[in-house]
Design a protein that fits this description.
The chain has 284 residues and is of the alpha+beta class. It contains 8 helices and 10 strands. The protein has 2 domains: 60 residues, no CATH class; 189 residues, Nucleotidyltransferase, domain 5. The protein has a 6-stranded mixed β-sheet with strand order 5-8-7-6-9-10, sandwiched between helices. A 4-stranded antiparallel β-sheet has the order 3-2-1-4, with no helix packed on it. Helix 4 packs across helix 6 and helix 7 runs antiparallel to helix 8.
């Protein structure tokens, strides 16, 4: 925050701390982490709270900000018949889809993942560029991020991709190289204080290097998981483009996932994310 912004701070308002992301407040001219968060978030607190920005309502309710923004278009589920205990080895196909819309300025990057234990997800982000050279790669890295977030460290995961860039990037992450990113990727923290998704993914892979592997295939369609993930990415694209409703997208995704894995279309109750999604979109 700038000097002018600090001068206008209301001491009764709550802010997000730029050092630890926990709620802070000005008290007698000093920035502090107020109760109950000083106790409930004790392990997360910094010693020198400083304001990043005014806290949003959901952040005031939870006591801290999320480390990243959730996508506006996202849905994640798990099929009942394929649940396995934590620690088991599973495979997951990840696929991205980038196509231009005939109308409108935002062009969706759809993504999908499908795992052998019945977990699946799909969604989309948007770009304003009509020519987006790395658009499909960017979409597939989104599938990579959400698959890793859902499955690691609970399972020993083998990622299936037909992108050599993703295979080499994940291998570099396993060795601790978080500079391995797609061409043009902006790794700087966003103005709102959110970390970039692929940096979070790189950290998670390095921290769980023994539980993450990657298998490159010639074509995603060569595997049932890849083919299913591709269909899910198309559903994400169509949902984002306004061609289908969320309800239609969820129903079609359930049919795709259960058909690809040859099980009944029955879901684990409550597996879909309960977190709020952000109304906006961001290029992360």
């Amino acid at each position: 925050m700038g000097t002018a912004d600090l001068a206008e701070i209301d001491s009764t308002e709550e802010y997000v701390c730029k050092n630890c992301r926990v709620i802070c407040r000005q008290q007698n001219g000093t920035w502090v982490h107020p109760e109950p968060w000083a106790t409930l978030k004790a392990r997360q607190l910094c010693e020198n709270p400083q304001p990043l920005r005014q806290a949003k309502p959901r952040e005031m309710r939870s006591g801290s900000m999320r480390s990243f923004r959730r996508d506006r278009w996202i849905n994640e589920e798990q099929l009942q018949q394929l649940v396995v205990p934590c620690g088991n080895a599973i495979e997951v196909g990840i696929v991205g889809c980038f196509r231009l819309r005939s109308t409108g300025s935002g062009h969706p990057r759809g993504w999908g993942y499908l795992a052998s234990d019945g977990h699946y997800g799909f969604g989309a982000t948007t770009t304003q560029s009509r020519f987006d050279g790395p658009g499909e790669l960017a979409a597939e890295t989104r599938a990579l991020f959400w698959a890793l977030r859902k499955l690691v460290p609970n399972y020993r995961v083998t990622l299936i991709t037909d992108y050599a860039e993703i295979a080499s990037m994940v291998d570099a992450w396993r060795c601790g190289d978080d500079t391995a990113m797609p061409p043009g990727y902006d790794a700087a923290m966003s103005e709102a204080g959110y970390e970039r998704k692929l940096l979070l993914a790189a950290r998670k892979v390095h921290e769980n290097a023994e539980s993450v592997a990657v298998r490159q295939v010639n074509d995603y369609a060569d595997t049932a998981l890849g083919a299913g993930a591709n269909k899910l990415s198309l559903i994400g694209w169509e949902w984002c483009a306004g061609e289908i409703t969320k309800a239609d997208a969820k129903a079609r995704a359930l049919a795709v996932a259960s058909g690809a894995l040859d099980v009944a279309p029955l879901l684990v109750a409550g597996d879909d994310q309960a977190e709020e999604t952000d109304d906006g979109n961001e290029e992360e």
